[in-house]
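User: Reviewer 2 asked us to show a designed sequence for the structure in our supplementary figure. I'm pasting the structure tokens here. Could you produce the per-position amino acids so we can include them in the response letter?
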């Protein structure tokens, strides 16, 4: 695999992990609180969100990079 493609894949997986971890933690805490079912609810939310987020980041990150470059008037 080409190093740039490998970088993009690993970046997408890491970014998805960080974002999904934080967002599902916050939203699960708000919705469920620190009760006995928190961990199970959080794990379920994380698993569902990660399956969605990783591919979305993989495909949308280049678009976001290009839009940002266009806004700033720089090369992507």
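Assistant: Here is a per-position design you can include in the supplement:
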């Amino acid at each position: 695999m080409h190093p740039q493609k490998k970088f993009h894949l690993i970046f997408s997986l890491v970014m998805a992990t960080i974002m999904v971890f934080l967002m599902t933690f916050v939203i699960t805490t708000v919705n469920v609180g620190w009760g006995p079912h928190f961990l199970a609810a959080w794990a379920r939310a994380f698993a569902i969100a990660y399956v969605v987020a990783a591919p979305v980041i993989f495909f949308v990150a280049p678009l976001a990079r290009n839009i940002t470059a266009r806004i700033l008037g720089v090369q992507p």
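For the response letter, you might also mention the following. The chain has one domain: 3-72. The mean pLDDT is 94.
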